[in-house]
Amino acid sequence: MTTVQKIKEIEDEMAKTQKNKATSYHLGQLKAKLAKLRRELLGPQGGGGGGGGIGFDVARTGIASVGFVGFPSVGKSTLMSKLTGTHSETSEIDFTTLTTVPGTLKVHGAPIQILDLPGIIEGANDGRGRGRQVIAVARTCNLIFIVLDVLKPLGDKTIIESELEAFGIRLNKKPPAIMVKKKEKGGIAITNTVPLTNIDQDEIKAILSEYKMSNADVAIRQANATADDLVDVIEGNRVYIPAIYVLNKVWKNFLIFWITANKQQIDAISIEELDLLYKIPNSVPISSREWLNIDELMEIMWRRLDLVRVYTKPRGAPPDYSAPVVLRRGKSAVEDFCNAIHKEIAKQMKYAVVWGASAKHARGQKVGLEHVLEDEDVVHISKK
Ligand SMILES: Nc1nc2c(ncn2[C@@H]2O[C@H](COP(=O)(O)OP(=O)(O)OP(=O)(O)O)[C@@H](O)[C@H]2O)c(=O)[nH]1
Ligand SMILES: [K+]
Ligand SMILES: [Mg+2]
């Protein structure tokens, strides 16, 4: 049996096994087995990230990157070309785009790299089409646009999500608040700071046993933690990436309808369908061809990238608002700010003065290299 067949077999068994007290050990085992098989399938390059191989690895520029993932001909290249001014072939024929096509776009002064990617189809992570290379590139992005055709969004959404999931990508999700520590002896000790609603002791034990962990401390600090979360923590090579669902090819009336949320009868799409579309979290309806609602898409993209703009203030002069230093959240200390300007500056700094959201008071706060900056702070570096 091939790995793909084994995966299919386990998935089928999981689908027909009802979750209850008596089956939870078995289900836990199956989940762990599935994760191990998927890792096998993806091989050494799959889990670790890196790029997607020849024609797929492109030079990375800008402060952050956004990858476009979707079925063929949903309008990815049309959107990317118009946004960045970089030509990427478009046509009504599927699989027009064959490699990664990079472009850049400035948003609020921050250069963002946009990666147009080939279309993917169901079975992409099993090696169908160029799916695996596409998803390997998506794994390295700071934000993913899942581009959907508004007329068939829900089915496509489910398929793309599961392809990305199978490749270790977790969308719009925080890393699970679960800690697993292997020990030499002492058996399994499970502690939870919150009541567990989605996972029980049997499932935890089955998973640990499947990974041959007979001595371990497991600490769960997340009420809705699931068996999949535990498997993710043990596997350890997951990436957590924000995603926006871009519902493309909306027509004007639909969009006006959407924006005013005026739930009256419309002819082309049923109220039920529309209701389901409304409920997709993190979704934005647009038309890349008619250039509708692109401003809203850009604003949501900016918010989800969660970047930190910092303005420099020379001594005795007003801040320079024209050219922010753009940092990533989690790497936005004064030291990161210094390094982004020049690698010697942090060494030469005596102290910094900060104005803005991260400062304690409006007149400015004297801080050191470790101080964490917020979006739109103003910083003056005082040298030794
Ligand atoms: N009606 C409509 N058609 C669009 C829109 N955006 C793109 N299209 C059309 O959809 C077709 C596919 O567009 P592409 O940009 O090539 O799509 P793609 O997703 O890059 O396709 P692949 O590279 O083949 O995966 C083209 O004929 C576009 O003109 C839109 O907003 N509305
Ligand atoms: K196309
Ligand atoms: Mg394309």
From TrEMBL:
Per the UniProt entry, what are the Gene Ontology biological process annotations, in alphabetical order?
Answer: positive regulation of cellular response to amino acid starvation
Q: Indicate whether tRNA processing appears among the record's keywords.
A: no
The family database entries (InterPro entries) matched by this protein are listed as:
Beta-grasp_dom_sf, DRG, G_OBG, GTP-bd, GTP-binding_2, GTP1-OBG_CS, P-loop_NTPase, Small_GTP-bd
Q: Name one GO molecular function term.
A: GTPase activity
Residue ranges constituting the OBG-type G domain according to the UniProt record: 64-306
Keywords, in A-Z order: GTP-binding, Nucleotide-binding
**Domain TGS, first and last residues per copy:** 306-383
Q: Which PROSITE patterns match?
A: G_OBG, GTP1_OBG, TGS
Q: Which domain of life is it from?
A: Eukaryota
NCBIfam families linked to this entry = small_GTP
Instruction: Tell me what this protein is called.
Output: OBG-type G domain-containing protein
